[in-house]
Structure formats: C-alpha cells, structure tokens
Amino acid sequence: MSKKALTREAILQQAVRSASQIGISRLTIGSLAGQSGLSKSGLFAHFGSKEALQLAVVQAAQAQFVEEVVKPAFTQPRGMPRLRALFHAWVMRLYGGSMPGGCPLLAAAYEFDDQPGAIRDALVAGQRWQRETLQRLLQDAQDAGELPAGSDVPLLAFMLFGLIQSAHHDHQLLDNHHSAQLALQGFEQLCGTAQAPAIPTTPAT
Amino acid sequence: MSKKALTREAILQQAVRSASQIGISRLTIGSLAGQSGLSKSGLFAHFGSKEALQLAVVQAAQAQFVEEVVKPAFTQPRGMPRLRALFHAWVMRLYGGSMPGGCPLLAAAYEFDDQPGAIRDALVAGQRWQRETLQRLLQDAQDAGELPAGSDVPLLAFMLFGLIQSAHHDHQLLDNHHSAQLALQGFEQLCGTAQAPAIPTTPAT
DNA sequence: CTCAAAAAAGAACGATCGTGCTATTTTGCA
DNA sequence: TGCAAAATAGCACGATCGTTCTTTTTTGAG
User: Is there a contact between B29 and B53 (Cβ–Cβ < 8 Å)?
Assistant: First the structure.
C-alpha cells in the first residue's frame, strides 16, 4: 500500500475513535491532526474538505461494522446460529474497548437526520443495508422453522434493532451494566426457544 | 408573569424546536437571537452562559414531554388503558409537527453521553424518571393481571423503549412511514391481548 | 406623568475553525 | 546516488462564536 493510503488509514482509525466520543459533526481538523502527528494542512490535503473527511469516517465505521459483526456471523451455519451470532456480536461491540464513546453510526443518525447531503445519504444506505441483512437472516431462520410460528420478519427486525438501541442508550447514558443481558434476553424472548410468551423462571406458587 | 419570564419562555420554545433539528450542542446564541427577534447580548442576558441556556432547553423539553405524554396518560384508568395511552402518545409525538427534527432528548442522549456536566446529569435524571414511570405503569398492568403471564417488567420497559427508539430512527433517518405502526404492533405483541406469540393474520394454508 | 429600574441593543474582544497558498521535507524510481 | 514528484509543514486570511462592557430603550409603580 502506498504511503498516502497508509497515512489515510491511520487518520481514519483515530477519527472513528474520536467520532465515537464527540460525534462526527464535532470532529475538527486541528485536533485530529494533533492526534495523528500531522499538521493541519498535512491532514487536510488527504481529504480536501471537512465534509469529505466526515464522509470517509462514516465509510470507515461502516466497514468496521461489517468486519466485526457481519463477517463473523457468516461463518456460522444458516438459520438461528447465524442470526444469534450476528445479534450477539452487534450487542457486544457496544462494550468492547474499540468504541469508547458508543457507536458513531447510531450517533450520526441523530446528528445528520435533518442535514441533507452526501453524509446523510451514506448513513441511510448503510442503515438500509443493515436492516436488510438482519431481515435476510431472520427469513432464513423462519424458512428453517426456527422462529415462533407466525413471526413477522420486518416487525421482528424492527424490534431487534430497538433492542440494540436500548442497550446502547442504557449503557452509554445510564451506565446500566445489565443492558447487554437485557438485550440478549429480549432476543431469546422474541426469536428463541421460548415459543410460549415468557414462561416464569420461578415455579408458580 | 413578568416580562422577563415571558420572553424567556418564548426563547426556549423556539430553542426546543431548533434543537430538534440541529441538536442542543449546535444551538448558537446568534441564530437563536435572530429567530426570537432579539439581539445576541439581549438573549445572552437571560441565561448568562451557553451551558445554562442548553440546560434550560433540556428542562423545557422534559417539561414538554410530561405535558404531552405523561399527563394525558394519567387521565386514563390504571392498568392497560393508561399504559397504552402512554405508549401511543409517546410514539405519536414523533410524528406531530411540534418536533420537526425528532426528539431533542433522544438526540441529546447521544450528544452528551460522553460529556460530563450539568447537562448530562439532567438528561440522566430525566431518562431514569421516564423509565421508572414506564415500569410503574407496567407493574400496575401486571398487578391487574393484564400482562402476559410471567412478564418481566424491567425487560418489558427496556424493549418498549427500544420500540420508541426504533420508530424514531426509522422515521427520521429512513423516512419509513410505517414505523409508527410497527411500534404499535410491537407493543401489542409484547403487552397486548395476543397472549400466544403472534397469531398469523392470514389463515394458515 | 415621572423616573428609577429592568430589559434589550450595539460594538468589540479573543479564540477557534476551515481553507488556500507557498515553502520544505520526504519518498521512490532512474 | 540524483532528482522529480509526492507528501507534509508553515503561515495567514476570513468567518463564526461566546462573552464582556457600555449605551439606549422600555417597563411599570408612585
């Protein structure tokens, strides 16, 4: 890889970490240059504008999501194993050290939902692809007869994504250490073996 | 009410609308002054600092949530009617014209989750209170035997809040016009009359 | 109506940011 | 090793923002 590409990768890796903490729209070229050991104009030359830099950060974060969540899931057998692997990796990514300030893509969805432009377009495309991937794995599980009878796949994908967001919210804002467990419990209630809705874990009186 | 308080209320009402679109951290005193028909320094004198202004915006948005969502629900009978009224108003608020850019409190949760200070503290307190309110209404419904047997109230509150966030995300970013319907469907599946998990709406083959 | 107090306006400051231009250093091939 | 090209640094400009200080306008009680 050329020197330029290597430097660009290093910049973006640091930028994604910073975006996780302060948000993509609050990235500044100056502080990013300092963290990367470059001068302002040296870093600027890699992207040409701040918006291009922000767009590159979005794409880098999306690529990282695919590497850390989607690809590992596809090493599992089709059906519930693959679906469960995707959901587990998706939830657990919120607790690893790689994103100290939370998922920059979820945050960016709130930052840019009212700001038309290339960044919003990239976010929309990425979120649509995420949802379609989730629905595809759900459909595979349903075709294999591994989901509760009569499950509504789009609704289920909608609810599972809600669990992700709730886990993120409770972890990042409320410091709730049980949020991952709640999300995984919710997944099992919606998709798992508990066909009947929530059998009490303690014997009835 | 004194002139000062009246002007302050008008400023905050406009500020909440702006925060809905651009976020609380991107509010600027200058543009807010223009929208309120005041000068920069005239507006500034009402708050004393930008952080105090942002804190006042958070409190105004929280008060608005109580007025529009919580209080109307408490006019309904305890149990499922009250719970359903709360959830419906909560979802539908995302689609009314009062918050053109989405819920500023949900967005603020992402903006300030890594920024310690009075604003984050106020957001945390407000979200904890929201969750406790939701859990209290769920508990009432469970005590009345109106929830599916063995329902886990904290988990249910966690999942219902996820439905709110998913609806917000799909509406604001993906322009999904069915997102409210999905959230309400999800509510009925989790809390509603469908005790068995999702009876198919179309007759089985 | 008067006039002191409250409210708002106006102007200016230092700081920060994105960006453009030029000089300097570093790279990698001949 | 020499040298053109690529990569980076240095510097400055204009714009924007929060904040302070002073002046002007507006309010409302006596």
Answer: yes
Query: Which residues does B96 contact at the CB level (< 8 Å), separation at least 6?
Result: none
**A28 C-beta less than 7 Å away from strand C:** yes
Tell me if residue B173 falls in helix, strand or coil: coil
Which nucleotide comes closest to B6 if you measure CA to C1'? C7
Identify whether the C-beta of residue B99 lies closer than 8 Å to the C-beta of residue A145.
Answer: no
Question: What's the pLDDT tens digit per position in A156-165?
Answer: 999 999 999 9
Taking residues A52-63, what's their average pLDDT?
98
Q: Does the global pTM surpass 0.90?
A: yes
Contact B94, B158 (CB under 8 A): no
- Residues A127-185 have pLDDT tens digits of 999 999 999 999 999 999 999 998 999 999 999 999 999 999 999 999 999 999 999 99
Test mutation, B169, B175, B176, B199, chain A, max A CBs within 10 A: B169
SS3 percent helix, strand, coil of chain B, rounded to 5, is 70, 0, 30
Evaluate if the CB of A49 falls below 7 Å from strand C.
yes
The phi, psi pair for A184, rounded to 5°, reads -70, -40
pLDDT band for B192, please (50, 70, 90 cuts): confident
> From the CA of B197, how many Å to the nearest CA of chain A?
6
CA–C1' span, A36 to D4, in Å? Answer: 28
What mean pLDDT, rounded, does chain B reach? Answer: 93
CB B180 within 8 A of CB B167: yes
Nearest 5°: CA angle at B82, between B76 and B86? 115
Residues 6+ apart with CB under 8 A from A56: A8, A12, A15, A47
Strand C, CB < 7 A, residues 46-65 of B = 46
The 3-state DSSP class for residue B33 equals helix
Around A186, how many Cα atoms within 13 Å sit in the side-chain half-sphere? Answer: 35
Q: What angle do CA A70, A71, A74 make, to 5 degrees?
A: 90
SS (H, E, C) A48-107: CCHHHHHHHHHHHHHHHHHHHHHHHHCCCCCCHHHHHHHHHHHHHCCCCCCCCCCCHHHH
- Distance in Å, alpha carbon of B53 to nearest chain A alpha carbon: 19
Numbers of helices and strands, H then E, in chain B: 10, 0
- B95 alpha carbon, distance to own chain's centre: 12
